[in-house]
Amino acid sequence: MEMVLDVASWVCLGAGAFFVVVGGLGLLRLPDFYARIHAAGITDTLGAWLILIGLMFQAGWTLVTVKLLLVLFFLLCTSPMASHALAKAAWVRGVAPRVGRELRPRKEGAGPP
């Protein structure tokens, strides 16, 4: 049973590390602000969740697992809200999304003032 938990832990840790690296590359390579928010959201949610789940497998049923579950819960609550708040603030400030290689012109009456 211990071997199964170790394998599951390392699979989760490896997959989480993969998503963190891909999200980091996305922050560097993606063309506009909104696409970069998407890459940061992947890193912040899926990568962090998988790493925390892998750490929970390593910790077993201890107080450390309860603390990791609390961290996971707070990430679940705050990550989508943070991404949405960043996108909303950018839209309000007039940051236009990119379409292809050109910036999409923002209509004057679109969105909040």
Description:
With 113 residues, the chain is mainly α. The radius of gyration is 18 Å and the shape is elongated. The chain starts with a helix and ends in a 10-residue tail after the last strand. It has 3 helices and 2 strands. It is 76% helix and 4% strand. The chain has one domain. A hairpin with a 2-residue loop joins strand 1 and strand 2.
Distance between the termini: 59 Å
Helix/strand order: HHHEE
Proportion of residues in helical segments? over 70%
Number of structural units classed as domains: 1
Q: Numbering strands along the chain, what is their spatial order in the largest sheet?
A: 1-2
Rounded mean pLDDT is 87
How many helices? Answer: 3
Total strand count, please?
A: 2
Report the radius of gyration as a whole number of Å: 18 Å
Oligomeric assembly:
single chain
Structural class: mainly alpha
**DSSP strand (E) fraction?**
under 5%
Low-confidence stretches: none
How many strands, what sense, and barrel or not for the largest sheet?
2 strands, antiparallel
Query: What is the general shape?
Result: elongated
